[in-house]
Amino acid sequence: MSDTDVRRRQFLKTSVGAAAVAIAPGMLLFDMAHGKTEAVSSKVRWGMLIDTANCADGCNDCVQACNKENGLSGGLSPTDSQWIRKVELNDMRSGRTLALPMMCQHCAEPPCVDVCPTAASFKRADGIVLVDKHLCIGCRYCMMACPYKARSFVHEPLHDQKPDVPRGKGTVESCTMCVHRVDKGQQPACAEACPNKSILFGNLNDPDSEISRKIRTVASTQIRADLGLNTGIRYQGI
Amino acid sequence: MPVNSFSRNEQYYFYGLVGIGSLLLALGLFAVHAMEEHGHIITGMNNQIVWGIPHVFAIFMIVSASGVLNVASIGSVFGKPMYKARAPLASLLSIALLAGGLTVLMLDLGRPDRIIVAATNFNFTSVFAWNVVLYSGMFAAVAIYIWTMMEQRMNPWSKPVGLFVFAWRFILTTGTGLIFAFLTARQAYGSALLAPMFIVISFTWGLAVFHVVQSAIYAWNGKTHTPEIVRRMKNLLGIFILGSLYLVATYHLTNLYFAHQSGFERFILKEGGIYPQLLWWGYGLFGNLIPLLLIFYPGMGKSRCALLASLLVILGGFALLYVFIIGGQAYPLNIFPGYEVSSSFGDGQIGLYSPSLPEFMLGMGGLAVAFLVILVGIRALNFVPHDKPHVAGASD
Amino acid sequence: MKVLLLSFLLAITPVWAADVFAPKLDIGKGGQCVEEPQWMRKNHMKVLMHQRDETVHQGIRDSKYSLKNCIECHASTKDNSVIGRADSFCEGCHRFEAVKIDCFECHSSKRRPALVQGESK
Fold first, then answer.
1. With contact defined as beta carbons under 8 Å apart, do B344 and A76 qualify?
2. Residue B364 and residue B367: Cα distance in Å, rounded?
3. Mean pLDDT for each consecutive 10-residue tract of chain A (238 residues)?
4. For A96-120, how does the pLDDT look when each residue is reduced to its tens digit (9 = 90+)?
5. C-chain residue closest to A30, CA distance
């Protein structure tokens, strides 16, 4: 090692040390002033209860709110991402019709997480199912495995993404339950946007939360309950 | 050997073939580059049909890669000398096809640049991740197998290693079948039958590919097949065809029997447009019936018939995979049983898919990889089957 | 002695040569960084990587090392971006070092407009 290198290291050490002493108190304040520093815990399980009786036919507010919040184009071609969609149902025996919003069901036992080769699909401790796009290699096996067709593949290069919602070509994505909002103590965009308040968001693990109380009193169903995935999104009136 | 114009110019023909292979490979890489640049939008794949033509090529090659080793296994595990002479060639084909298939699979990823993540972040519950281990293990095992066969001092080991490879490829094809068998939510897949089905299918395709390559090598070297060898190999092929036909039929019959699956079967067998066409004509007629006639019909079954049968089996294989992979996705997921559904995201509708040129180029690029490995492998090392004169017909 | 001096000069040359050719960066708003600049030059990727895993998987959004906050301060005051020009804060240096940045295929490279900023804080 040349002596220049030694001197340079020495200089770096002292300057970093001095800087640390100078900045430390400021850092403490900085820490306190900013976002959440605690890891999410499994004491919480985020979920939604969707009342299909109040879901107006032709209303698309939740979809639009989602697109706006997450920076989706809103395009409807088969290669465009749709994180939430309105599904019109028609009971083939009785002829009863209804509509409901469909998105990632945030399963407790998500098939997408089971099949993902790189563990890019994962479930957060608080029950939100996400794709870690840093790990996603774009194999699309999760899309094959999802019983709800909740996932989209980004088919084109993207620009001007939302700072809070990174998305990119060649990776798979789906509803994040607006995790960036939830972490700030806000509701998902769709729940907030619903004019009839038919999307109730809350903590399924807290017996006193509004959603838990309602689930105790009204009949609710999980879609494809036969698969035993224990979804976090529940529906009323199917 | 008579000196004709072919043997005089043989090396130019060889380099010509290398050139063709390289050109196809270059076209494939160009397609990959375009897909990198523009994204998968330039393919026919979309959010409903997430796996397309590249996967048909890749899975055909991977399944055949396992099946072609059957020839080697019959030789080393069951001790048939006729097949033993063909074990090195079978092993080379296996490595080549595996390399081709994996190349396609890897380059079709949304982020092929991140392929290393598949090794560093390993999800033990994923069949895909198991397959990563199975495929790479297969490379190593077959390479060692070739070594034990070609290096005289290692010969005593070729039997145990052959046994190991035999077991490994069984698990490997099971793994490939399980990729689909584990998809419980999809009508087309999620059947335990798929694992054995893939295994028997792999025997058929593998033997067909082997036969085509062997015929080409013989023709190149001006050799002719001994009638005895042709007879045995084509009979074996016939039995494998019947076996896979049986399993494919059983798979569809069980589906037909379950009321909740009958909609899917109606689609794939009757009303689904291109898919029933490909299944009945492509797979049924050209992939099974005609080859069976070519093999078993009295007066047929000569060398040329066996070659044609093998080619048709390969064609039928592609047809079957197209129907299985793409047709299986085209049929809509049954998210709300008992309801008629519609949405902006294709719920309740048949998924549309029209394969694009780059996809075919990528698939052909994979075939080119396999082709080049075989071509160079045979040129560089002694893979050509050498039958000892007394062997054919000596033991059965 | 002369030889020694010469070799010392030779040894030191690359150091200030690098300074001469080093990219002149548009540091944006700049100001007090979360760590010593020299340290950040060496370690920003480790810090970002660590923060990324914690944020994505555990929801820890302590913004001290967040990429968003880096951009907040260091996006150019001209085009609000950390990439796209030879003197952009991220790209300038990465071009010089010939290291590919993978961040901005997915992440926004732009400072949030003031309006949105007020709304979501």
1. yes
2. 5
3. 59 57 47 64 96 93 97 96 97 94 97 96 97 96 96 95 94 97 95 96 97 96 96 95
4. 999 999 999 999 999 999 999 999 9
5. C64
Best probe of the C interface among A5, A9, A16, A46, by most C CBs < 10 A, is A16
Q: Is the separation of the CB atoms in A228 and A215 below 8 Å?
A: no
Distance CA B95, CA B142 (A): 7
Print burial letters for B124-143: b (CB count within 10 Å at least 16), e (below 16).
eebbbbbbbebbeebeebbe
Domain boundaries, chain B: 26-335+344-382
Q: Tell me which chains share at least 3 CB pairs under 8 Å with chain C.
A: A
Tell me the per-residue pLDDT of A211-225, one tens digit each, with 9 for 90 and over: 999 999 999 999 999
According to CATH, the topology of domain B26-335+344-382 is: Formate dehydrogenase/DMSO reductase fold (1.20.1630)
Please give the model's pTM, rounded to 2 decimal places.
0.89
Cβ of A85 within 8 Å of Cβ of B121? The answer is: no
Chain B residues touching residue A172 (CB < 8 angstroms): 110
* Cβ–Cβ gap B112/A153 under 8 Å: no
Among the partner residues A89, A102, A148, nearest to B339 by beta-carbon distance: A89
Q: Report d(CA B74, CA B162) in Å as an integer.
A: 10
Reported ipTM: 0.91
- Name chain C contacts of A132, Cβ cutoff 8 Å: 56-57
Q: Could you give the count of Cα atoms lying within 13 Å of A41 in the half-sphere of its Cβ?
A: 6
Chain C nearest CA to A37, separation (Å): 5
Q: CA-to-CA distance for B224 and A55, rounded, in angstroms?
A: 74
- Does B118 contact chain A (CB < 8 Å)? yes
C63 at A interface, C-beta within 8 A = yes
Task: Looking at chain C, list the stretches that DSSP marks H as alpha helix, in order from N- to C-terminal side.
Answer: 2-21, 37-58, 67-74, 89-97, 114-120
Q: Which residue of A has its CA nearest to B114?
A: A137
Share of chain C above pLDDT 70, in %: 76
